[in-house]
Amino acid sequence: MAAILIVEDEASINELVKRNLQLVGHACISVFDGDAALAEIRTRPYDLILLDIMLPGEDGFEVFRALQAVRETPVIFLTARSGLPDRIKGFSMGADDYLTKPFEMLELLARVEAVLRRTIKKSSFAVGDVRIDFDSRQVFCHEQPIECTPKEYELLEVLVKNRNIALSRERLLELAWGYDYEGDTRTIDVHIQKLRRKLGWEDAIKTVYKLGYRLELGL
């Protein structure tokens, strides 16, 4: 779980982003202008800031400079400005990513996860009786090691990192097997059944009708 500050003046977009990030387990605070963002970041550190460029008062670029002067924090710019000069400016200032509106929520979640993977070193994940050590690639249930094949582990890590998100079988193949994999998507079903049985996650790994699977952990 990451602590994420959302700086977006459009209330509907702010709320939509917040709800989706919370759904996958992140803790989010919403503010609607640069002054509020500065006040908030002075109270506590954040793992990531989602920063709109077109804010009331000072624009997002000026807010970015002020925020980084208080505490260096990874930033993804969210903006309706799609021009190359603005993107170059954002990256040259040190932004970690730049996403133009309108955007698909799954793309935002993927970009957030990518930035967090680069900036936060998470060594383990635990829920209920299951614990995953990412460094050693070991899985434990009731603190007893669970034997997983390399592909079972890869699939499990993909499910955990995208928890509470419905993923198609094709997408799971891309993430766990690689984009050049040419096998049948039924291999996903086989591996899912094995993970359910080994971890006791028969109810946690949900089948999404005519799509794929979702790891539902209630986080």
How would you describe this structure to a colleague?
By secondary structure, the chain is of the alpha/beta class. It folds into two domains: 3-119, Response regulator (Rossmann fold), CATH 3.40.50; 124-215, Arc Repressor Mutant, subunit A (Orthogonal Bundle), CATH 1.10.10.10. It contains eight helices and twelve strands. The chain has helices at 11-23, 34-43, 60-70, 84-93, 105-119, 150-161, 169-177, 186-199; strands spanning 3-7, 27-31, 48-52, 75-79, 97-100, 124-127, 130-133, 138-141, 144-146, 167-168, 205-208, 212-215. The strands form three sheets. A five-stranded parallel sheet has the order 2-1-3-4-5, with helices on both faces. A four-stranded antiparallel sheet has the order 6-7-8-9, with helices on one face. The longest helix has 15 residues, at 105-119. The radius of gyration is 19 Å and the shape is elongated. The mean pLDDT is 87.
CATH top level class name of the largest domain: Alpha Beta
- What's the total helix number? 8
| Overall average residue pLDDT | 87
Strands ordered across the widest β-sheet: 2-1-3-4-5
Shape descriptor: elongated
SSE topology string: EHEHEHEHEHEEEEHEHHEE
| Helix coverage percent | 40-55%
Low-pLDDT segments, ≥5 res: none
CATH architecture annotation of the largest domain: 3-Layer(aba) Sandwich
Tell me the β content. Answer: 15-25%
| Largest sheet features | 5 strands, parallel
Oligomer: single chain
Q: Whole-number radius of gyration? A: 19 Å
Topology-level CATH name of the largest domain:
Rossmann fold
Query: What distance separates the N and C termini?
Result: 9 Å
> Would you tell me the structural class of the helices and strands?
alpha/beta
In total, the number of strands is: 12
